[in-house]
Amino acid sequence: MADPAFTALDPLADSVELTRALCDIPSVSGDERTVADAIEEFLRGSAHLEVVRHGNSVVARTRLGRERRVVIAGHIDTVPINDNVPSRLIPADVSDEGIEMLWGRGTVDMKGGVAVQLRLARDLVDPSADITWIWYDNEEVSAELNGLGVLAAAHPELVVGDFAILGEPSNSTIEGGCNGSVRIEVRTFGRRAHSARAWMGENAIHAIAPVLQRLAEFEPATVTVEGLDYREGLNAVGISGGVAGNVIPDECMVHINYRFAPNRSSEQAIAWLREYFDGFDVTVVDRSEGARPGLDAALAREFVAAVGTEPAPKYGWTDVARFSALGIPAVNFGPGDPSLAHADDERVSTAQIRECERSLRAWLSHDDG
Amino acid sequence: MADPAFTALDPLADSVELTRALCDIPSVSGDERTVADAIEEFLRGSAHLEVVRHGNSVVARTRLGRERRVVIAGHIDTVPINDNVPSRLIPADVSDEGIEMLWGRGTVDMKGGVAVQLRLARDLVDPSADITWIWYDNEEVSAELNGLGVLAAAHPELVVGDFAILGEPSNSTIEGGCNGSVRIEVRTFGRRAHSARAWMGENAIHAIAPVLQRLAEFEPATVTVEGLDYREGLNAVGISGGVAGNVIPDECMVHINYRFAPNRSSEQAIAWLREYFDGFDVTVVDRSEGARPGLDAALAREFVAAVGTEPAPKYGWTDVARFSALGIPAVNFGPGDPSLAHADDERVSTAQIRECERSLRAWLSHDDG
Description:
- Chains A, B: GO terms for molecular function: acetylornithine deacetylase activity; metal ion binding; succinyl-diaminopimelate desuccinylase activity.
- Two copies of one chain form a homodimer.
- The first copy, chain A, is an alpha+beta fold.
- Chain A has two domains: 238 residues, Aminopeptidase; 109 residues, Alpha-Beta Plaits (2-Layer Sandwich), CATH 3.30.70.
- Chain A is elongated.
- In chain A, strands 1-2-6-3-7-16-8-15 form an eight-stranded mixed beta sheet, with helices on both faces. In chain A, strands 12-13-9-14 form a four-stranded antiparallel beta sheet. In chain A, strands 4-5-17 form a three-stranded antiparallel beta sheet.
- In chain A, helix 2 packs across helix 4, helix 4 packs parallel to helix 11 and helix 9 packs across helix 11.
- Strand 12 of chain A pairs antiparallel with strand 12 of chain B, so a sheet runs across the interface.
């Protein structure tokens, strides 16, 4: 057991202090118990919250009989640490950015978002909508371990609402929906021969030239879905082939990742891929549905108005797609630059953490006047 | 020490029996001592031969003061055994080919050729030309270990002659010269990015499409050199690239093998490759000079006439190129189908062994009447 004196979260800490404290409890996927304990402890004793623990996921919800319910969720695991824990606070006068930055694993993805949520969960005793807060484990690993998916399967009654906000890093602006993703392997086949007698064989690497040609020629579309522009992408992410330095190769494989706008299902995307690579052997290895931005939901429109900045599309795949599949419109909204997620120089502007907290607090307090 | 009773070669055995006996003394590259001992023993006591042992190579030569000297050579090592030793003689009535076949490692590459040479070395006490017989080790491994090269460097005075015959398998016909070979790596570079934001990167795999296109479009020339047609070949023998399933790759490499006719040097072949792949990063990883067929040498013309079949080009690289570099015109002439060399079902027609022996014996005895 870890030392409770070290892992306890100060009930009076602000969201930046909570971010630091959460980062300083290492919680690489599969090792979230200590941080889940600290979160549960932080919430117990708040009379307005019903707290449920499931594995290393924690759910806390209000039951105020409001007309509408918002789900606000975040994952508590991180990718592996690389000498970047404990976190370090770099003051504005010495930081490259000229503003105060918090460095360390999880600062962006996504202890900052979790900290904002924890602060608000305790503070908002009388919110404008009922709120279901969900903190879950195993987001950074394979889909079947995902804590949100596990929770929704075990306790579907806990994962319900009219709108969901996922605290993934989005520079504290609203990023709606996400692209879908399909991975395929395209193969060509040939016949081995000694390269001194190449005419007795058939070169599978040469045969894959038209596949690379089609990839190079592909012009990615920008697709507008509910007012947001999604940029698609079709890319080789791997290629392999060859037997030995003197053998005509009999097989070549290109591994391709297709990111498609959420106006299409993965089924439609796969049909398009089979058409685009017609004449070649295509194997689907992986698929994730996209999620429409969900910005036409009433609560979403109000939230967008409250935040006051233009919503943007989310390109990377996130668990908003999981909410979308459950019939809950969902957006990403959290502090941090998503391009710094998983980076060794992962860092977040503390001002963004505060800005994110302020926006959510204002919106969820609105009706209270 | 191996049992001498087992490893001794019968001085009266014919060339087929000698082939079997040689195959039954395993001599994978690096382990040729026993077979070299047996060869040396087999030759000692022949008054017409001066025998020199150098490492596991054996040289035996006549010093009859003939006007011309022929070098006849063969390597005594094999590629690794794969349950195909000892050799097995399959009679004509049960063999797939309908002729008597000798199966086993080395039957083709090239104990058959060595056996013919050993039989003739003992028998030809008064040949038409002086003969230098060379049996050498380590042909099947890296070039710097090659016993013929080692011998020529240590005892250049032993490796001289007007014409050379290398007993490599050639279906007992004359195969002249050999193609040269160059291996290069062609690389493209790009910039990594998350595949969800592909436009922030540059895809090195897509960038290699024109290289594969040029390979696919290449039409191999057939080049006539001293009357023999050499087929060239330009082939990808390997390709690799990719970082992870969600990363735009920043590097891709195609490994290419160019086989070129012996009218060009490797230097010229490399210059041509740099031109053909102009605009791409090209690294030379390996080069071997080709060898002109040498069929215009007087001895070669007589030998061709004596064998009586049309000479053919040799496509694979052999040590005739080493003789060629020493200024000695050289051809391949040995029993066995070269496409069965190194195969697990390696096997030779015993008739071819006898035919090869007969041709060489007739030619080298010719002037004796």
